[in-house]
Amino acid sequence: MAITPFRLCSLVLFLSCAFVAESKFMVYKTGQSVVPGKLNVHLVPHTHNDVGWRKTVDQYYVGSNYTADEGCVENILDSLIPALLADKNRRFIYVEQASISFSFLLFIFFRFLAENWIEIEANLYISLAFFQRWWRDQSEIVQNIVKQLVSSGQLEFINGGMCMHDEAATNYIDMIDQTTLGHRFIKEEFGVTPRIGWQIDPFGHSAVQAYLLGAEVGFDSLFFWRIDYQDVAKRKKEKNLEVVWQGSKSFGSSAQIFASVFPESYAPPTGFNFEINYGSPIVQDDINLFDYNVQERVNDFVSAAISQANITRTNHIMWTMGMDFMYQYATTWFRQMDKLIHYVNQDGRVNALYSTPSIYTDAKYAANESWPLKTDDFFPYANTLNTYWTGYFTSRPALKGYIRMLSGYYLAARQLEFFNGRSKTGPKTDTLADALAVAQHHDAVTGTEQQHVADDYAKRLSIGYKEAEELVATSLACMVESASKTGCRNPATKFQQCPLMNISYCPPSEIDLSRGKNLVVVVYNSLGWKRDDVIRIPVINGNVTVKDPSGKEIESQLLPIANASLGIRSFSTMAYLGKSPSVAPKYWLAFSASVPPLGFSTYIVSGAKSSASASVRQTFYRSERSQNKTIEVGPGNLKLNYSGNEGKLTNYANIRNSIKAFLEQSYSFYSANDGTEPFISPTDGTEVFQPSGAYIFRPNGTHPIKSEGQVSFTVLRGSLLDEVHHRINSWIYQITRLYRDKEHAEVEFIVGSIPIDDMIGKEVVTRITTTMKSNKTFYTDSNGRDFIKRIRDYRSDWDLEVNQPVAGNYYPINLGIYTKDNRTELSVLVDRPVGGSSIVDGQLELMLHRRLVTEDDKGVREGLNETVCVVDKCEGLTIQGKYYLRIDPLGEGAKWRRSYGQEIYSPLLLAFSEQDGDNWANSHLPSFSGMDPSYMLPDNIAMITLQELDEGKVLLRLAHLYEIGEDKDLSVMASVELKKVFPEKKIIKITEMSLSANQEKAEMEKKRLVWKVEGSAEKKSRVLRGGPVHPEKLVVELAPMEIRTFIINFSRKQGDKEISMSMSTPPKTCPSQLVVLNKAFKLAEQWVKNMSTPLEDEPTDVKLEARPSRLGLGAKVSRQSKIGPSNDPIERKLHAKLDAGKRKSAKSIKESKLSARSGSDNSDDSDEDLESRTKSFSKKRVVPPTSSLQRNKKPK
C-alpha cells in the first residue's frame, strides 16, 4: 500500500491521541527551574562510557563480549534521543566523543598497494565508536534533531575530548592533542564549545588538568570524584568540597577554576539508581496498584538532599544520575526522574529540577559566594586505609613506553606533513592521532585494563604508526630530492625506519656494505633549536666509515652489542614479528650528528677495507681481581667512580663545575601484599582484604637485589662515549653510558622476566642515593609541565595519618623528579611514565616494572601478570628502558631538566635508505631547516604543535618551558619571530585561539567566569602574559609557563609571486539544516516521499562511496552517494520488497505530489506530537538482560 501524506497524517494523529489517552492522568510537571531561597537539587542525567577497560572500545560500542562486562553504547544513544524528545525539559550530558575501530587487514592491504597511494572507492570506512561513530550512522533527519537538542541545551557535551584522559600517566602535549580533536568535532558539527570539565573517574587529579586543560581551554568549572579519603572527610566537615583551584603558581589567579568534588561517587545517592534490575525502588504512583509509595519516595529524596546540603555551600546541590554504561534503556531513568521532580516539588520542602553541570555552575556563580583556595594537586589518592592508587603509575611499562615513543613520533610526523603538504589521498597522521587520543584514556595508558584490551590499544597504535611511517618516509624523500610542495607524491628515494631500534633490530642498517653500497641515514630534528647528539645504529660489519652532510669523514665508534640485548632481540622479533633473523648485528656504530632546528642532516655510512671507526677498549672486571681498585669512567667532564671489589657506583664528579658527590645506585623489589590479612575500613567500617594490583601499590617488605655469585662488570671506553655493563642478576641487566659532550649519565635497564615461582608478586625499583640533607623534600612534575613540591608524610590540606609510608609517598612522574640541599640538586629524568618518591633523605626511587599474582579488587578482574609467548614457551614480560641522572649546583638544574626533557620526548628521527655509488650528494639535499638559517627558537621555548589542517590552515602552538622563578636566566618573557620561523611562507592572517583551538582566545576570556576567593581582598600580584601579536611584526611573546595557540593562514612564495594556501574561499557547501522539532514532521514526510520514488526515476548506475577526506575525526562521508548491493541476505530481501513497493506506488505518489506539497506547507505539529518525533529512533536490538555482574558491580 502506498504511504500517502493523508495516511501519514492519520497515523500520527492516531498515535498522538493514543498517547494523550494513555497519559492524561499521568502528566508530570518537569519544567521546574531554580527557586531562590529553597534547596535546589540539580538532577544531572549522565552515563560514563570507558573507551576500553574490561572490553575493547569496539566491544563496548556494539555490546559484544557480554561475559567480560555489560555495556552497549549504541543502545544507550539509541534509547537516549527519543527519551529526550518525549519531554523538552529532560536533559542529558555526554562526555566521551570517540575512539576508532580499525580493520587491521585494511592497512595490511594498503601496505601492498602500488607505489602511489590511490583513492579507494569501495567500502573504505573507518568507523568511530561512541558518539562520533553513532553520529555517522544516523540519517540526516536524526542528525538534525540531535543538533536541535544540542542547540536547545537538552543534550550538552562536556569535557569534549576523544576520551576522559588520565591525569597521572599522561603528558600535557597528549592531553592537549586529544582534547583538541574532540573539541574540533563538536565545533564543526554542532557549533558549540564545551565549558565544563568532567574528570569523574581518573584516580587522582593533577594541577595541569585544573589550569591548563581547565581554565586555558575556556572551562568555567571542573567536576571530579577521586581524592584521598582523609581529605574528603575533612572537606565534608568544613563544607569545602567545592573550591577555587589555582593549579599554576606562574599564572596565579588568571588560571583559576571552580572545582567541585562529588561527596560519594558519580553515582546517584543510595536508592535512586534506576537502571534496569538495579534494585532501587521505583516511584509507584498508580493508586490502583499495590505498593503505592509516593510519599515514602519523596521522604527518601528530601532526606538524601538535606544530608548532602549539610556538607555543601549555597542552596544548590548536584545529584549525578547515572553510572558506568547506564541508560541502556533511557526511559527507565527519565520516567522515575519525571515522577520525582513532579512529586518532590508538589511536596515543596526542596526544589528538584532537570539540570546540567553548566546550569549548576551558573547557579553557584550567581550565589556570589567566596570559595576556599586550593593549590597544587590531589595526588596520591587513597580510597581507604592501606589502599593507595599508586601502582598504576608504573603498571604495563611497555605499553606506557610505546605510547610515549609514538607521541614524540606524532609530533615530528605532523611537522613533516606540514613541510611536504597535506595529502588528500595519501597517508596522513590522522589515524595515529586518533589512536593516541584513545590511548590517553584513564584505563589505557594507566595499564589498568585487561590484557586483551591492552593488546587492542597496542594494535591500534601500531596501525596508526604504519600509516604515519609511510607519510614520514615520503615527506623526507621529497625533501631530500628538493621536490616541490605540491608535486611530490611518489619520490624515487625509499626510506625505511626502525621502531625496534631499542632492541638492536634495524634491518635497513644491517646491510652488507662491503660491495660498494652506502647506507644513507637522514636524521630529523623536531625541536626548534640546533641539536648535537650521538647516533647509535646496529651494523653487522665493523669496517665502516661515516661522512657528514658536507662529505667530510667524521669520528665514529664501534661498541659490541651485549648478549643481553641480542637475547631480547631474538625472543621479541619472534614473538612480535613471527620471524627470527638469520644474522645478528655485531656492533653499535656511534657517531656525532649536528642537526638544524625543524630540519634534517644526512650522513653516509660506507664500507671500508679496514675500519675507520675507533674500536673501544674493553675491560672485564671481577671482584676478586679488583678488590682495591677504583675504576673511573667517562670521556668528558663527567666522571663516575666504581669500586673494584663490588662493582658499585661510589662517586660522581663534574670537572667543569667542580661538583663532587657520593653516589650509589642499586635495585630492590617490594614483595606485593597478597591481601590475606584483613583490616577495618575507617570510611564504612567494613572488613577489607587489600592486595597489590594494577591500581593499588601495597608493599609487604623490601628486598635488595644483589649480584648472584661473583660481581662481574665490563667497561667499554671510547672517544665518544664510555659504557659500563652490569649483570645484576639473572633477570636484570644494566648499561650506564657517559658521553664526551654531555654532563649526565644515561642508564639503560633490562628487567625481566620477573620470577614469580614463589607465588609472590614483585615490584622492582631502582634507587639513586646521595648524602644530601633534603629534609624530606623532593619535587615531581605535573604531566611533564610544572614541578610540584612534595614533602614526605605530609599533605598541605590536612594532617596526614600515615598508614602506608611507602605507597602513600609515591607520586606520578612523566618528566622527572629531583631533590636538593643547600648546595646541590640531584635530578632524574624518565623515558616513560613511572611512579617514584624519596623515601629516604638524599635518595630518589623509581618503580620500573611490576609483576603480580593477585588482583586488587578494583574492578579489572585480572591480575597484572604480563607474559609473552613464542610457540609453547611463555615468559614474563621483559622491558627495556632508560633514565637519566645529573647533579648540578643549587639553582642550575632546571636548564638540564627542561632542555633535555624536550630531547627525551622528541628524540631524533632516523630514516635509512640504501644507495649505490657515491652520487647521493650530487642529486639530493644534504641538509634542511624549516627555519631561517640564522634563527633558532629561544632556549626556553618549544614548538609543541605544527600541523596543517583542512583547507590549508595551520595550527601552531608555542610553549614556554620554565615556571616563574625556576631559572634566573630563562624564567623570563621570550619572543618568537614568526617571519623567521616560516621564511618561505607569508603569513596573511593569524588568529590566537584557546588552547584547544575551538574558539578565539579573546572571546573565551570574555565569557569565562571569575570566581571570588576567601581572603582575596588584598591586592593581587600582576600576572605576566605575552601581549597581542602585531599583524605586521608577527612576534609572539610568551611568559613563563605560557602556551599560546594560533590558527595561521599562509600564502606560499614562488619567486615574486604569492600563492594563497588557505585564504581563497572554499567551495560553499550547504550546512546541515538545523530543524526545529515541530518541523520534524515535514522532514519525515519528505523522507517517506524519497523512499517511495519509483525505480525508473533513479539513476541506473551505482556510484561507490568515496574515501573520506579525513580518516578519523571530522570525516564527512556523503550520505547521498549510492552503495552497491549488500551481501546481507536479509537486507537484500528488504530492498527487494521496498523496490516492489516503489513500483506499485509510483503512479499514486506522482499524482499526490501537488497536494502533498500544499498540505506540507500548511501543516505544523505541536509539542504534543511526540510519536512523530520519535519515529526515526526505533530500536535496533532488544536490550540484553542485565547480568548479575551488572547488578553487583562495584565502582573502580
From TrEMBL:
Keyword annotations from UniProtKB, A to Z: Disulfide bond, Glycoprotein, Glycosidase, Hydrolase, Metal-binding, Signal, Zinc
GO molecular function: alpha-mannosidase activity; carbohydrate binding; metal ion binding
Annotated region described as Disordered, given as residue ranges: 1095-1196
Single biological process term from Gene Ontology: mannose metabolic process
Domain Glycoside hydrolase family 38 central: 387-461
Catalytic activity, reaction form: Hydrolysis of terminal, non-reducing alpha-D-mannose residues in alpha-D-mannosides
Entry note: cofactor: Binds 1 zinc ion per subunit.
Signal peptide per UniProt: 1-23
EC assignment: 3.2.1.-
Transmembrane segments: none
Keyword 4Fe-4S: no
Gene3D superfamilies listed in its UniProt record: 2.60.40.1360, Glycoside hydrolase 38, N terminal domain, Glycoside hydrolase family 38, central domain, Golgi alpha-mannosidase II, Golgi alpha-mannosidase II, domain 4
Annotated SUPFAM superfamilies: Families 57/38 glycoside transferase middle domain, Galactose mutarotase-like, Glycoside hydrolase/deacetylase
Composition skew (Basic and acidic residues), residue ranges: 1129-1154
Required cofactor names: Zn(2+)
Highest taxon of the lineage: Eukaryota
InterPro entries linked to this entry: DUF3245, Gal_mutarotase_sf_dom, GH38_C, Glyco_hydro/deAcase_b/a-brl, Glyco_hydro_38_C, Glyco_hydro_38_cen, Glyco_hydro_38_cen_sf, Glyco_hydro_38_N
Protein family according to the UniProt entry: Belongs to the glycosyl hydrolase 38 family.
Protein name: Alpha-mannosidase
Annotated organism of origin: Vitis rotundifolia
